[in-house]
Request: fold
Amino acid sequence: MKNSILKILPLFLGGILFSQNFQDSIQFKKISDEMLVNSTAYENLRDLSLNIGNRLSGSKAYEKSVDWAVYKLKEAGADKVWKEEVMVPVWERGKESLQIKDKSGQWKSLKMLSLGNSEGTKGKDIEAQIVIVKTKEEFDQLPDASVNGKIIFFNYAFNQKFINTGQAYGDASKYRRSSASWAGKRGAKAVIIRSLSSSFDDVPHTGMMKYDEDDTFKIAAVAIGPKSADELEAMLKTQKVFAKINSNCTMKGEILSHTVIGEITGNKDKNVIVVGGHLDTWDVGDGSSDDGAGIVQSIEVLRAFKKLGLKNNHTIRVVCFANEENGVKGGNKYAENIRKNKENHLFAIESDGGGFTPRGFGLVMNSDKRKQIQSWKNLFEPYGIHNFDSQHAGTDIEPMQPLEVPLAALIPDSQRYFDIHHSEEDTFDKVNRRELILGAVAMGQLIYMIDKNW
Reply:
C-alpha cells in the first residue's frame, strides 16, 4: 500500500499544480482581455500629455496634474484617494543660449539645454576657450592651466555596444551628474556635456546634475546633441574654438506639493501592494514616456481589478510620486510615512521605462521571493514576458528597500527609450496604444499573483 501511495502522490500533486496554473491562466486572460479591449490608459495619457503637458515639480502644470490624478483615480474606482504632502525643489530654466566661434570669427548657435538643478550665468555672457576631454581620466590628466578659465567639453559617447540601453545610460550618467563639480573645483567657467542619448540626431537631453556640498562656485552645465558634439570635436582637432553661454536657470527654494495616492481596500487584511510611477517630468517634451506611461498603467491596474470584480486579499495602492526627476522627495517621503505609520508593505512595483513593449520584471528581493516569481514564468510567456533575471527597481520605490519591502520594475523594450528620454522628443505620438496597455497587463497579472500567494 505504501508503495502505491508513493507512486500516486506525484500524480496527485501534479494534478493540483496543473489545476492551479489553469485557474491562474484563466485570470491572466481575463486581465489581458479587459485591458486590451476596454482600457482607458491610452486616452488618459493623451489627456495628461496634450492638455497638461510637461510638469516639472514646483510648477503650476505639476499642480494641475495633481488634480488630474485625483480625478482619474476616483474615476477608475478607487475606494480611497488622498494627497500626501511633500516639500519639493523649484528649479526654473529661463532663457538660455550657447554659441561657438572658430577661426572664421563668426558666432554660431548650437541647440542646447541646461542640465536640471544647475545654476546659470545670471543672464550674463560667459565666454571662454573650449577644452575637450572624452573621459574623467583624461580630465584628471589635464594641467591646471588647461582647465582654469576654460569651458570644458566632456564628449563621452553613449556606449552603443550595450544591448540593454539602460546599461549605457548608467555608464554615461556620471558625466551629467558630476562634471560641473569636477571642473568647477579646478577653476573652469562652465561645462558642456554630450547628451545621454542612444540616437545620432541633434536633440539635446536634460536631466539632473548635482553640485558637491563643498563647491564654492557653481558653474553652468549644459548639454548638446550627439550630432553637435561630433561636429564640435572635429572642429577642435584642427583649431581653437570659443564658446559663449548665457543662461538664467536657477534654484528657487522649495514649495509644498503632493504625491497622489489611491487604493482599493484588501478583503483579507491591510497589507499593501504598491504599483506606481512618477507624476512629474522635465520641462521639455510632454513627458508621455517619462513617466506619463507609468502613471496611466498604474491607474489602469486599479481600474481593471475593480471592473473585473477581483477580490484582492491585500490593499492595492496606486502611488503617483512627486519629484522623481530632480530630487526623489516624493519617494523618500512615502517611505518615511509608511515607517512612521507602521504600514506593512508586501510588494512594490514601478513603471518608469516608457510605454514600450514589456519584456520582463526587475526583481530586488530575497532569493526565495525571486525564485517564487520566476516559477510563474510559464504563465507570463504567452504575453511576451520572459526576463526575470534583472535586479533593479524604480527610483521612487528604492527608499523602501531598507524596510525590506520586495521591489520590482516593469522592464519594457529599451531600444527607443533613450532616443527621447529627457528631451523635446518625449511626446505622446511616440507611444503605441497596444504596447502601453500590454505593460499594464503584465503589471496587473503580477500583482494578481502576488496578492493571491503572499
Summary: The CA atoms of residues 139 and 385 lie 43 Å apart. The longest strand covers residues 250-264. The two ends are 36 Å apart (CA to CA). The mean pLDDT is 95.
